[in-house]
């Protein structure tokens, strides 16, 4: 575990100093991501916004507050999951990241996934969906579904920022969190008290973060 922590710290430092693409010239801070390195659940968004750029932490603005609320709504603590983005530096004016920027930053997310080894990845928005599952349907079709690739489970969701000012999307996002809740309950129940061998014990994560009445 110490080796993993050291690797995560080194990767974090490398991202904060990265100058691989042009976004390094306009960012205030690169935003590697936050969360326990043995998290069973990872959430992946698009790119840092203004508040994230200013603080160096992901999902700390209005969209972050909504994400926290959605997680709390299914009894899951934000502190129990690893949160990051496909692009680690803010695109100017919050524009969509360019294909070249996504490609340049891709190795960092890939390394984070290799380190964290999450069992479940929440894909927040179309950019995260198509970065990690290029053959997936559009987010309007894929949201709220459970996609399996290898041993990993992906759940695409609308991005909280898109739902902030769209009541219809927010309703859908809240409904889709029920799917996340259901998968977590099934995985927690299926794994009992066992350890998956890599530190990712979903049942342990749940027992740490779920309220008593929410535990399977
Ligand atoms: S967006 Fe990614 S590749 Fe581009 S400068 Fe930032 S960390 Fe480096």
Describe this structure in words.
The radius of gyration is 16 Å and the shape is globular. It has 9 helices and 5 strands. The protein is 46% helix and 11% strand. The protein has one domain: 3-Layer(aba) Sandwich (Uracil-DNA Glycosylase, subunit E), CATH 3.40.470.10. Strands 2-1-3-5-4 form a 5-stranded mixed β-sheet, sandwiched between helices. With 216 residues, the chain is an alpha/beta fold. Helix 1 runs antiparallel to helix 4 and helix 8 crosses helix 9. Bound molecules: iron/sulfur cluster (SF4).
User: What overall form do the CA principal axes indicate?
Assistant: globular
> According to CATH, what is the topology?
Uracil-DNA Glycosylase, subunit E
Mind telling me the C-alpha Rg?
16 Å
What is the average of the pLDDT values? Answer: 89
Q: Into how many domains do the coordinates divide?
A: 1
Bound molecules: iron/sulfur cluster
- CATH second-level architecture: 3-Layer(aba) Sandwich
Report the count of strand segments.
5
Strand fraction: 5-15%
How would you sum up the major sheet? 5 strands, mixed
The helix count comes to 9
- Could you name the ranges where pLDDT drops below 50 across 5 or more consecutive residues? 191-201, 207-216
Give me the side-by-side strand order of the main sheet: 2-1-3-5-4
State the separation between the terminal residues, measured CA to CA: 28 Å
